[in-house]
UniProtKB/TrEMBL annotation:
Its main location: mitochondrion. This is Coiled-coil-helix-coiled-coil-helix domain-containing protein 7. Belongs to the CHCHD7 family. InterPro entries: COX23, Cys_alpha_HP_mot_SF.
Length: 94
């Protein structure tokens, strides 16, 4: 009897966190995780990565709140819109 090979699907929460249109701080999150892996989970050695991630979340959360107040949907800008916003700023705000 042959069994069909099942595809392994990520849980919905994981897929959403890995989606660049939903998670604006994906690269900062990956950098933090990579740093922890490389430094044997020594949090002190990765504090700059954590701070960048925290500031990224803070920045995009403020953008999202402003868009919500102005009635702009989707509340979180897409990845393309975020690139335009960051380009208009001229430098990384976080």
């Amino acid at each position: 009897m042959l069994r069909s090979k099942k595809t392994v699907r990520m849980p919905l929460v994981t897929r959403r966190l890995r989606d660049p249109d939903i998670n604006p701080c994906l690269s900062e999150s990956d950098a933090s995780t990579r740093c922890m892996d490389e430094n044997n989970y020594d949090r002190e050695r990765c504090s700059t990565h954590f701070l960048k991630y925290k500031n990224c979340r803070r920045f995009w959360n403020s953008v999202m709140l402003q868009r919500r107040q102005n009635g702009v949907k989707p509340f979180m800008p897409t990845a393309a819109e975020r690139d335009e916003i960051l380009g208009a700023l001229g430098k990384m705000p976080y």
